Amino acid sequence: MNRPYASRCRLLTDIELPTGKLPVAVRCRVGDIPGEDVALLDTASTWCVLPPNFAPDLEYEPPVESAMRLDTRFGLMVGELIRLPVTFVPDEGEPTTVEATWFLSADWPGPLVIGWKGCLERMRFACEPDIDAFHCEPL
Description:
Strand content: over 45%
Helix content: under 10%
Shape: globular
Radius of gyration: 15 Å
Number of domains: 1
CATH architecture: Beta Barrel
Number of helices: 0
CATH topology: Cathepsin D, subunit A, domain 1
């Protein structure tokens, strides 16, 4: 890799979670929730997606009715967009924090998702699968 990045995180592959298998994932923290979570890294996802069980810790209530809809692999979901920081947990370097836009739906049965709009598009990142590395820094 010719370009240095502010942080290097472990790229996780084929992680089994109760919500299913994640082919590519990263460790992160959402908002002020203590600890870290594993999130699907999905460059094809329009938004980051926040499972409804995160909402109480973030002082949000998942909407049951809304004009905002998202077409997902689980079908059409109704929800709202919220802004919360996500911090990528580094193995080397400094934590990378990005103010992300999250889709929150009471019906989302899937995992925490790091998506393109409002998150990955706001940072520089590179994946090196041969050494399980996710390099990142905010723009």
